[in-house]
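Example S7 (structure tokens).
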């Protein structure tokens, strides 16, 4: 994302990451790297975040000497992380008090699709701020959607992952059931492509569930569980009961407990297929 932004926007960029190797990669793309995150806040009018989750975003924004402490009037913080809605609202209010903007802009895509900009970014902010950011976001993503006001990008991403996780669970169950009933898995999924094609089927079903490959280094089970933890928190705050969501969340919890936390998250099929007979 950083490389695509710098190459396409043609603007100077100062980057920080706790991993020196990540900083070095950005330097090779023409960025200026710093080991001091305060410099990013001090030198840049627009700051992009892409972090693992709520704890890291809170630390970077609200920790001692964090972004909030150095935010000036007119500054914009664009958070491409996936975080809970209540944290999005908290940060938006905190930055607004200083005359700055906190924009929720989570990303949907895969590790492999980022380089080709084959990702989407869902943005929650006002119209004027979105118009300012859209040209930069389009350097990183083919699809940039303005979802509405603050928090709408966060909610949209969380619900996207809720639907995706339930879809992959259904595919895993169908694959196991079909194989036990004597149907070839590849033919089954080909029939699905003709009758109910989807990103979940093509990206997770055909490349992971069908061959049984769940490598570490792709989006891990613990990350998907983290996102569904945020969905659980959201639905409970609204007093809702969602049976499908509860079941999928529980399945991911079991997968992590079974030692699949770092495996590519469609590995949840391993928990469904407890006796491994269909592998």
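Recovered sequence:
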């Amino acid at each position: 994302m950083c490389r695509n932004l710098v190459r396409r926007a043609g603007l100077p960029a100062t980057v920080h990451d706790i991993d020196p190797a990540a900083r070095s990669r950005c330097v090779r793309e023409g960025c200026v790297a710093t080991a001091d995150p305060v410099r990013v806040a001090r030198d840049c009018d627009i700051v992009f975040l892409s972090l693992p989750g709520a704890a890291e975003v809170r630390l970077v924004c609200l920790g001692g000497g964090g972004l909030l402490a150095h935010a000036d009037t007119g500054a914009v913080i664009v958070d491409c992380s996936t975080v809970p809605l209540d944290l999005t609202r908290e940060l938006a209010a905190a930055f607004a008090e200083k005359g700055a903007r906190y924009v929720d802009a989570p990303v949907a895509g895969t590790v492999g699709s980022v380089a080709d900009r084959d990702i989407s970014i869902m943005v929650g902010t006002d119209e004027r701020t979105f118009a300012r950011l859209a040209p930069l976001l389009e350097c990183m993503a083919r699809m940039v959607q303005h979802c509405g006001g603050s928090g709408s990008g966060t909610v949209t991403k969380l619900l996207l992952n809720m639907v995706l996780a339930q879809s992959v669970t259904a595919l895993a169950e169908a694959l196991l059931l079909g194989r036990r009933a004597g149907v070839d898995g590849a033919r089954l999924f080909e029939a699905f492509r003709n009758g109910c094609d989807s990103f979940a089927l093509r990206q997770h079903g055909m490349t992971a569930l069908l061959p049984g490959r769940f490598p570490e280094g792709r989006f891990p089970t613990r990350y998907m569980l983290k996102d569904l933890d945020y969905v659980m928190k959201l639905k409970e705050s609204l007093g809702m009961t969602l049976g499908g969501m509860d079941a999928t969340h529980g399945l991911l919890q079991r997968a992590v407990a079974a030692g699949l936390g770092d495996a590519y998250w469609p590995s949840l099929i391993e928990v469904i297929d407890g006796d491994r007979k269909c592998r």
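Notes on this example. The first strand starts at residue 14 and ends at 15.
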